[in-house]
Amino acid sequence: MSGPRPVGPADVWSTSAVTAARAFEYWRDLICDTFVQLSATPTAAGPFDGHLVHADLESFEMTTVAAGGQRVRRTPRLIARAGEEYLLASIQTRGRGRVEQDGRVAELVPGAMALYDSTRPYTLHFDAAFEQVVVQVPLRGLLAEAGLRDARGVTAVQLGADSPAGVVAQFFHGLARLQRTDPLAASALAAQGRGLMASALTLSAGRVPRGDVLTRHRVEAFLRARHADPDLTVDDVARAFLISRRTLYRLFDGTPGGVGTVLRRIRVDHAKSLLLADPGRPLEAIAGACGFGGERQFYRVFRAETGLTPGRFRGTSGQ
């Protein structure tokens, strides 16, 4: 970054690093360096406070933004000056706002998500303090993966928390929290982020991800996003993709045990990363974090998949 400098850890920045008189100017530099070239103005008089936590997760970038009210614009002049090509998703976690692009307005309330495209003008507006997670993915490859020619039909469409695409918002919200407390586990889960964002694109366009878009990989990404829920069922998965149980099972014909086996292995893989990342964490807590119904089930499934008990795996890996 050219102007602003990190405060504390290399991926954390805050206006507390400068005087109150320079706070918004500093913030404007921060958001331009973190996302794309933008113009910004505060929506209220008085002191301004802003905080960014940014992570580069290889196939996408993820930033938690907590700040005071502001109006942020991506203008034609700024696009001509720096033609960055990204799809961005704002996932609201606190406060309210809106995204405006392509003649549409998406209201951002806690739990909702909206997409926008950096190659065309857009506006983000927040009347008061807010918090959101912003996911930023290179546009061209993502469009190809989603089976779309461009993003004009998917921008500034509200994706509610209760919609199928809301699962994607829940995943990234959880991933942002996990990144701050357990970066190793977050890195393991982040591998599914790009596929989930492609699914969000498809759903935002009003299309059901079928055929070459609804693939086994997409269903696996959904399972990774929801695997920590011990009550997740085959019916839940089929309903999320608007397909029958039979169609879902057919996707996993080549896997003994089918979709249930895939879910168990995802849970075990997550448990492995937690066992290694935090040697002092109780097994009961790890079982709960990975979606197992209890420590006894965790022990039985882990041993069946790895040939070791969780405790033995942790001790052997630490040698």
Describe the fold and architecture:
By secondary structure, the chain is of the alpha+beta class. The chain has helices spanning 23-34, 76-81, 139-146, 166-181, 183-190, 193-204, 216-226, 234-240, 245-251, 258-277, 283-289, 295-306, 310-317; strands at residues 12-14, 39-42, 50-56, 61-67, 70-74, 86-94, 97-101, 104-108, 113-117, 122-126, 130-138. The protein is globular. The chain starts with 11 loop residues before the first strand and ends with a helix. Residues 1-10 and 208-214 have low confidence and may be disordered. Residues 217-316 form the HTH araC/xylS-type domain. This is Helix-turn-helix domain-containing protein.
Topology, pairings included?
Elements: E1 12-14, H1 23-34, E2 39-42, E3 50-56, E4 61-67, E5 70-74, H2 76-81, E6 86-94, E7 97-101, E8 104-108, E9 113-117, E10 122-126, E11 130-138, H3 139-146, H4 166-181, H5 183-190, H6 193-204, H7 216-226, H8 234-240, H9 245-251, H10 258-277, H11 283-289, H12 295-306, H13 310-317
Antiparallel strand pairs: 1-3, 2-5, 3-4, 4-11, 5-10, 6-9, 6-11, 7-8, 7-10
| Distance between the amino and carboxyl termini | 40 Å
CATH topology description of the largest domain: Jelly Rolls
Query: Which class do the helix and strand fractions yield?
Result: alpha+beta
What is the CATH C-level name of the largest domain?
A: Mainly Beta
What strand line-up does the widest sheet have?
A: 1-3-4-11-6-9
> Considering the protein shown, what is the CATH homologous superfamily of the largest domain?
Jelly Rolls
Describe the global form: globular
Count the domains: 2
Percent helix among the residues? 40-55%
CATH architecture of the largest domain: Sandwich
Given as residue ranges, the uncertain stretches (5+ residues, pLDDT < 50) are 1-10, 208-214
Average pLDDT confidence is 87
Describe the biggest sheet?
6 strands, antiparallel
How large is the radius of gyration? 21 Å
Number of DSSP helical runs:
13
Binned strand content: 15-25%
Number of strands: 11
Secondary-structure element order, as H and E?
Answer: EHEEEEHEEEEEEHHHHHHHHHHH
